[in-house]
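User: Hello! I'm new to structural biology and keep hearing that structure can be predicted from sequence alone. Could you demonstrate with Inosine-5'-monophosphate dehydrogenase IMP dehydrogenase IMPDH IMPD? Please show me the input and the output so I can see what each looks like.

Assistant: Of course. The first part below is the input, the amino acid sequence of Inosine-5'-monophosphate dehydrogenase IMP dehydrogenase IMPDH IMPD. The second part is the output, the predicted structure written as tokens.
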Amino acid sequence: MLNLSKATIRTDLSKLGILNYIDAKPKVGYFVGKRGTPNREEKFRLLQMKVGDLHGVPVIVRETTTIQEAVVALFLENVSNLIVTDEDGDLAGVASRKDLLKVTLGNPNAATIPVSLVMTRQANVVTVSPEDTVLEAARKIIARQIDSLPVVVPSDSDKPGEHWKVVGRITKTNIIKMLLDMVAED
């Protein structure tokens, strides 16, 4: 089918066999080896891992924080966005690098503007709970093309509407580090 002789591909097949990507048996032929298929237990563990097991510490600012203070916090914490909360500590929104950059370029009054005027409001913020799977969080991050998600739990607030307490944040970096740690275990 490939128009190659056995001698031509035998060295390649032997290398793949040595690395356990394929295996061979007489009268059966070649088939996928141990390294060629993911371990079912590993795959199951990955599918069951919860956001609460992985999330990091959130970088939070209040709605009344000025743009200048928010930019300083963004760079000091080396994050791509800031989680904004109201006076009760409930999620109010998220301010990204782009949000802050748009308002600061060519605006001499930006230093005094509150971050609440440029943030993405809570109704438009994608969140996850500690009980969601890491796989679901990764899907949301990829679908929305964002760098991180706030991890929230329902607030005990008596105010009408949905209110969320921020307990963490999960980032692309958290997820990639977890995958690298799983590979390193092998």
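User: So the tokens describe the shape?

Assistant: Right, they're a compact way of writing down the 3D structure. Reading them back into a model, for example: The chain has a mean pLDDT of 87.
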